[in-house]
Amino acid sequence: MFMWPKPGETTPSKKVAYVRKVKLGDRYVIVGSHYFQPTPIWMKG
Fold first, then answer.
1. How many CB atoms lie within 10 A of CB 15?
2. Among 4, 7, 15, which residue's Cα sits nearest to residue 38?
3. pTM to 2 decimals?
4. CA within 20 to 30 Å of 38's CA: 2, 16, 25, 30, which one?
5. Pairwise CA distance, residues 12 & 3, whole Å
6. What does the pLDDT read at residue 6?
7. Closest CA to 33 of 43, 44, 13, 19
8. How far is CA 33 from the centre of its chain?
9. Is the pLDDT of residue 1 over 60?
10. Which of the two residues, 42 and 4, has the higher pLDDT score?
11. What is the pLDDT of residue 42?
12. CA–CA separation, 11 vs 24, rounded Å?
């Protein structure tokens, strides 16, 4: 987990990244995904 601003914003938000090495035939590739962690409703002002 790391901090990064959402598109169009300047304040960093928590962001989660998932990366994995995958074998594809005789090659290895890196597959990744990320998302911004949503703020729970009870934390919104």
1. 15
2. 15
3. 0.45
4. 30
5. 5
6. 82
7. 19
8. 6
9. yes
10. 4
11. 64
12. 38
Q: What one-character-per-residue DSSP string does 1-45 give?
A: -EEEEPTT--SEEEEEEEEEEEEETTEEEEEEEEEEPPPPGGG--
- Show the tokens assigned to 44: 């919104």
Contact 4, 17 (CB under 8 A): no
The type of residue at 21 is K
Chain position carrying tokens 């890196």: 30
Locate 40 and state its tokens: 């729970």
- Per residue in 9-32, pLDDT (tens digit) is 899 988 888 889 999 999 999 999
CA 5 centroid distance within chain: 11
Residue with tokens 């601003």, as numbered in its chain: 5
